[in-house]
């Protein structure tokens, strides 16, 4: 039987991304979203490293294959603008909800 956990936050989703030298770094998934009119899926992640700049947020297009996730760097300017606009809209809506 499922129990409601009012006031409790979910565990953050953590993924590991290899850097250029093959070292895996830990990132928290901030949000996942799809853009209307597109089948592409995107995720925003932030480093878990306490020494990282709090404003560091990275965006990737991703595909799921079973339990595996493949990340793709967004290189197209038009695609990046859509992702940035969508992310900013979510942030603004979240700030408005927090202000109520």
Structure explained in plain terms:
The structure is a single chain. By secondary structure, the chain is an alpha+beta fold. It is built from one helix and five strands; from the N terminus they run βββββα. The protein has one helix at residues 77-99, and strands at residues 14-18, 24-34, 41-47, 58-65, 68-73. Strand 1 (14-18) and strand 2 (24-34) form a beta hairpin. 7% of the residues are buried. Residues 1-7 have low confidence and may be disordered. Belongs to the UPF0473 family. This is UPF0473 protein A7312_14955. InterPro entries: UPF0473. It comes from Paenibacillus polymyxa.
Main β-sheet: number of strands, strand sense, barrel status? 5 strands, antiparallel
Number of alpha- plus pi-helical segments: 1
Work out the radius of gyration. 15 Å
Percent of residues in beta strands:
35-45%
Q: Summarize the helix and strand pattern as letters.
A: EEEEEH
| Number of E strands | 5
From the spread of the alpha carbons, the general shape counts as: globular
Report helical residue fraction.
10-25%
């Amino acid at each position: 039987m499922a129990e409601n956990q009012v006031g409790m936050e979910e565990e953050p989703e953590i993924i590991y991304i290899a850097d250029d030298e093959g070292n895996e770094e830990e990132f928290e998934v901030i949000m996942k979203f799809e853009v209307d009119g597109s089948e592409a899926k995107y995720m925003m992640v932030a480093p878990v490293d306490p020494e990282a700049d709090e404003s560091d947020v990275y965006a990737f297009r991703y595909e799921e294959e079973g339990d595996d996730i493949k990340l793709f760097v967004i290189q197209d300017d038009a695609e990046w603008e859509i992702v940035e606009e969508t992310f900013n809209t979510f942030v603004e809506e979240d700030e408005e909800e927090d202000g109520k």
